[in-house]
Amino acid sequence: MDASRTRALWRVACAAVLLCAAPTASGCTAPKPPAEKGDSTTPAALPLSAVDLQNQYLKVIREVLPSVVQIQASHDLGSGVVYDAQGHIVTNAHVVGSEKSFEVTTANSEEPFTARLVYSYPDQDLAVIKLDKAPAGLKPAVLGSSERVEVGQIVLAMGSPLGLSSSVTQGIVSATGRTVSEGSSGGGTGATIANMVQTSAAINPGNSGGALVNLDGRVVGIPTLAATDPDLGGSAAPGIGFAIPASMVKTVAGQIVKSGKVVDSGRAALGVTVRTVVDDSYQPAGVALVSIRSGGAADKAGLRPGDVITKLDGTAVTTTTELSEALAADRPGQRLKVAFQREGDEKSAEVTLGEQ
Known about the structure:
Elements: E1 3-4, H1 50-64, E2 68-72, E3 77-82, E4 88-91, H2 93-96, E5 101-105, E6 113-121, E7 126-131, E8 154-159, E9 167-181, E10 192-199, E11 211-214, E12 219-229, E13 235-245, H3 246-259, E14 268-269, E15 272-278, E16 284-292, H4 297-300, E17 308-312, E18 315-316, H5 320-328, E19 335-342, E20 345-352, E21 354-355
Antiparallel strand pairs: 1-12, 2-3, 2-5, 3-4, 4-7, 5-6, 6-7, 8-9, 8-11, 9-10, 10-13, 11-12, 12-13, 14-21, 15-16, 16-17, 17-18, 17-19, 19-20
């Protein structure tokens, strides 16, 4: 399923789930039976009541929402997350586009602040902007560890969907480790991003660049795009959204804040320009090398312009998107076997991946 930023407004019907039939002051937990000898059960080991869970939601929202801002570019609107007290804000590259200055509205301000672009990194769809004058009390978000994100965890998506600032939706982590390719239409960067967090929390236009937060108040991802269903004319597929993992956000934003740019992408590359080729039935049949960077991974492995890659480490590659997705999961320095066609002959080569 291709994923891209959604551009259509759709209604989401929310259903309240009755957790228990008997209304009690303590929520849905049954009365605890008298402890038997040797029973080591403690209150901390019991499930949260509905009241406890609601209070935790409220606590997290109060803590994190002040760290989520609305970003207005001349032709687009998105969200951002306060990175530090100096006024650095991390967002999506597709939110800033090609612009250099922005209006930023914080959760506690009525008038927008001006901000300028520090650096945009479209390959990972991340960017950092900086407020011209950071207001007193600006509260940085706490970025969590993506490695601790588990399927089933409750998460909250915070941002400005459709321009509705300081909005919160809730869901769970539906999957981790997704490799997703953005569409380049509708303002997307066309990036292929690995290890994304899939969530059922509603991701709408304007949520891009905001915060996906766990119940510990840690930002575990930056909501970036929602899935679309080609069978529905490209309409959004409700409940399938994706967020860039916090660990990648820390890596990229940290380099930008420190050096003004990304100096170590950590992304593997072949050092080629490519296009998809089709067979006689007009079906994708491989990836043709249009040009090869001198001294790059493909050049060192003996590949030439005109070669058509068909497999990467035994996995079929029929389109440029599939090649990007395969490389997104690899690391610079990794050795791979590349199968390709040259003037009708089947060949293979060992390639040591370079860095993008």
